[in-house]
Amino acid sequence: MVLVIGAFLGFLAVAMGAYSEHGLIGSISQEQLLSIRTAIRYQQIHSLVIVAIGLVIATSSPVAKTKGLAACGVLFITGTVVFSFSIFVSVLMNAPGIAILTPVGGIIIMFAWLSLFVFGLRVWRG
User: Fold this and answer.
1) Is residue 83 within 8 Å of residue 64, measured between CB atoms?
2) Can you name the residues that pair with 25 across neighbouring β-strands?
3) What is the pTM of this model?
4) Three-state SS for 70?
5) Sign of dihedral through CA atoms 103, 107, 112, 114?
């Protein structure tokens, strides 16, 4: 499931990138456009990480070894959705109050990276 969600988030990042460059320029402020571009960039980067995690999970035979990795994937998914979508909704729906969730998403993404670091250490140590 991590792979499927990562692929879909990647698709949405490309779609939002196209929409922002071809449909939003001129209808939102430069500051809002920069915010949208930041959300898209974070979504693109973390979609790739999520897909990579999903591929490792999908191709690993001992499922028990990938439970920690699956948890990392869930954290990356949650953080990416909260971070990027709070910006999208804030700008596109003119709901600036939702932007209060953006730093929460960023913190979840940082925690996801730390969790992946810990998982990597455990794998490395054997």
Assistant:
1) no
2) 28
3) 0.93
4) helix
5) positive
Ranges of beta strands (E only) in 2-75 are none
d(CA 90, CA 106): 16
What's the CA gap between 43 and 16, in Å, rounded? 10
Taking phi over 0 as left and psi of -120 to 50 as alpha, with beta for the rest, 94 belongs to: left
* pLDDT recorded at residue 63: 63
- What pLDDT score was predicted for residue 62? 72
* CA-wise closest residue to 43 among 5, 97, 72: 5
Is residue 64 very low, low, confident or very high in pLDDT (cuts 50, 70, 90)?
Answer: low
Residues 6+ apart with CB under 8 A from 63: none
Q: How far is CA 94 from CA 63, 67, 71, 98, 105, in A?
A: 44, 39, 33, 9, 19
Q: How far apart, in Å, do the first and last CA atoms of the chain sit?
A: 26
Mean pLDDT of the chain: 94
Q: Which residue has the higher pLDDT, 20 or 63?
A: 20
Asked if 43 and 88 touch (Cβ cutoff 8 Å), the reply is no
pLDDT above 90 (res 126): no
